[in-house]
Structure formats: C-alpha cells, structure tokens
Amino acid sequence: PLLRVLDLTADAEFMDQDSWRAIGDLSKLWAIAPQLRELRLKGSSNDEGTSTKLGTIVAPHLEKLVHISSGLSKNVPVEIGKATFPELRHLELYLGEEDYGNTCKVKSFAGIFDGKGLPRLEYLGLSNSEWERELIVALAKAPIVRRLRTLDLTKGTLWREGAQALIEHAAAFRHLELLDVRDNYFDDEQAAAIKK
User: Fold this and answer.
1) What is the pTM of this model?
2) How many CB atoms are closer than 10 A to CB 31?
C-alpha cells in the first residue's frame, strides 16, 4: 500500500523484444497500491490473445504513466480514456504495428483526446505509430492538445503526409513548448517547413 513507483520495463534475459513480453491483467493494482505515483509498463498483445488490461482505474495520485509496446491493445487507451487522473501530468503510449498486436484505431483514443479525465496533463506521447495524417488531424481537433506543453510523436512513420498535416494544422500546435517528431522520416525540406 505504500508503493509509489512500479517499473515493469527492465529487460529480462529471455524477454529482450517488446513483442515477446505480455503484461496481463493489472485491474487489481489500483486497490492494493493507492499511493502509486508512477507506472511504467513494457509489453505487447500477442498471438495467444494476452494483452494489457488496466480495468477500472482509480489512481488519484498517479503522475506518470508509460506503456512501451510494439503492439498496443485497444483496450489500453480506451480504459485510460474512461478513467479520471486528477494528478496525471505525463502519459506516454507506444502504439506499434498490427503485425505485433496493435489493435488500436484513432477512435480508441477518443477519451484521452477529449481530456475530461486528464485535467493536469502536460505531456502526451503517442510514439511508434504507423499512422500519419489520420493521427495528426485527430490531434489537431482534440481538446486535450490545448493544455499540453509537449506533444511527442517520436519513433513513427511520419513522412510527406505527416509533414503536410502538421503544416496544415500548425495553429493547433503552435502553443506547444515542444513538438517532438524525432526518429520519423522527414527530409530537410519537410523539417524546415515544420519548424517555420
């Protein structure tokens, strides 16, 4: 009951690939660790149907939630979107790809993008994504973006369509202190246009 940080991301001898790891059902965690401030997870959905289940989340003190995955189960953003996190400031989700268990669609993030349960969120990371234009257009319209300081879109497949979408919707992101698009596929010309 005094636990404040739970980190399940350390590499294991036989689990050095994100796609080999499964997290399973964490729905009982919230009742037994009510003081939790930081939760870091690493694991993917797999062929056996094992996926991360967060259940009904009650985490009044949680400030940071990171889920590293090469294939994120759609129930993760849906369950986060239904929860109320009065203190959460940092939310970072690695989406991954369908071949490694990603069952998410942009609509899976509707509750997060709406932001009603995330009043103090400052950092939103949606990394390792295969989506380009669709994700950026949805974010540009999302109420949550207005209160962010950092939007992290690193390690994805953003290229021409992604660059064009960022430029077309620049007004939605101009207030950010940091729009992080490292480790994508922009060429110098696209990067310069985004900076401008």
Assistant:
1) 0.92
2) 11
